[in-house]
Design brief:
7 helices, about 180 residues, 8 strands
């Protein structure tokens, strides 16, 4: 269990899959590109969570806990120990738990875990330009917008831009020192 300020993260267990699939089905969606790029069914949900990679190799999927209940999930895929980097591919929070800071705290907690436990140097993501996650990522002063891939994702009959963000360990550490964090 990894404790954040508002929520906690726990590694996915097989018993959590049905709950997470229900959250996914009943959520108004996610802005992360990885999930948007394919039709999600109960049959392929595990592959979506693990970013279509072998689960035991280079991916971590966490349930997001709030007041002891599972309210969403977040994953870190493409973990490269050689390049010391990882990609946040999915973040889903129950609709009724949005606007409470849970998603923002889950992102911060995952980044801290990636740097302090996995010894990564870089964590990055890509988001659908049409979503509202952009403002959440911009609220973290240590997360930098690295650029926009114009018309790189086709959905619902139109081209969508994808924004790319990253955080580097030294920027995160500098910010944490400044605010007196861990």
């Amino acid at each position: 269990m990894i404790k954040g300020t508002i929520c906690s993260l726990k590694l996915l267990e097989a018993k959590d899959l049905n709950c997470l699939f229900d959250i996914y089905q009943n959520s108004s969606g996610t802005e992360f590109v990885e999930v948007l790029s394919q039709e999600v069914t109960k049959a392929n949900f595990t592959r979506v969570l693990f970013g279509n990679q072998e689960p035991e190799i280079d991916v971590k999927v966490f349930c997001i806990l709030y007041e002891e209940d599972i309210v969403g999930f977040i994953n870190l895929t493409n973990i490269s120990l050689i390049n010391r980097s990882g990609f946040v591919g999915s973040l889903i929070v129950k609709d009724e738990c949005r606007c409470k800071g849970i998603g923002e705290d889950a992102i911060s907690t995952l980044i801290e875990y990636a740097f302090n436990n996995l010894n990564l140097n870089r964590v990055h993501t890509a988001i659908n330009d049409a979503g509202n996650l952009d403002s959440i990522l911009k609220s973290h002063p240590y997360i930098k917008h690295e650029g926009t891939s114009r018309e790189s994702h086709f959905e619902d009959g139109k081209w969508i831009d994808v924004k790319r963000y990253a955080v580097i360990r030294k920027d995160f550490n500098k910010y944490m020192e400044r605010i007196g964090g861990k």
